[in-house]
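$ fold --in a.seq
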Amino acid sequence: MTTQAGAESTHKPLTQSERNAFSANRARIADIKAKMLELEGTMIELERTLSSLNEENTLLQDRLDVYTYPVLILPNEIVSEIFVHFLPVFPEPPPMIGGTSPNVLGQICRKWREISFEHPRALEGDQFVAAQREET
């Protein structure tokens, strides 16, 4: 068993090229550590920016959630009148597809879609098509 003092005596001194390599490695390590510190600072700054943007987004979404679109506050009777003026004059049935179909009004929002299904004139086109099928 060798003692520590004996182990030290068996080491030979570093050569100049080994010392140069050792110094170069220390310099590289110092550069890497400095770059890591710089990146950590950048990450902290970006996290603050992201947090600020998330807060702003939340505030804007809250404002948007509170906003009531005017079309949503119309009474059902008014919406039904809009449907009556949109649909063709009786006895002509409304088309089931296209820009003048009651389905177009039903695409405005859920409330209008429900009203379009409940409106008696909006369903005449379905009844007309069903009656034609029964006749053939």
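$ fold --in b.seq
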Amino acid sequence: MSRAAIAIVAVIAVVLLVTVGAIVLTTSRSAPQPAAQANGTRVAFYGDSYTLGTGASARSKRWSTVICRERGWTEFNHSTNGLGFINNRAELRIDEPAQVIADKPDIVFITMGLNDNFSYDTSAKQIHAQIGTDFRRLKTALPDARFIVVEPFWYTDQRPTSLGVIIRWVKEAASDIDADYIPGASRWIEHHPEWMASDGLHPNDAGYAEMAKRMDMELSRLGL
């Protein structure tokens, strides 16, 4: 082969290498990226230890985080151990509704009420009044948010009379602000001691998994 022919072959080889390299580089840069989990929906929770996830081995196991992760929602969870509409509110000096409002959520979950059973005998009137006050305050501050009110959770097979009364008050307040209402949550872990953490008060990972399953079913019913 002549020197001229060899030179032509070399030039062609270089051109092919550059072209292939450019194709590979372009393909690499333009490859579609995995879709982000978050879809922009901001979801805030006004709740107690059962929404905080106390008793779970990790926050990722709590029902609120599970349903948000599955739906690509951004979770804002200010839930507090021992807090009720009235119970421990003055002592803890926590204003969860204010925190929820500051989050500017698209969806608000209200899962409060369990701990107020422990204050019912001395503060029933105050509890009833505060439920309505909190609901109206949140609705006024967040008129475009979708509200999902969950029947107060409960933790034993024995049910005090106060529980039924507080459940009724919460349901009525939900209706007053045109919120979606999820019934039956006080019985979701009933008769299943194996779903309780070692403290006997809160769900364990299996308990929260069951709560997430039940919540998922209810949200699907609501089109969420």
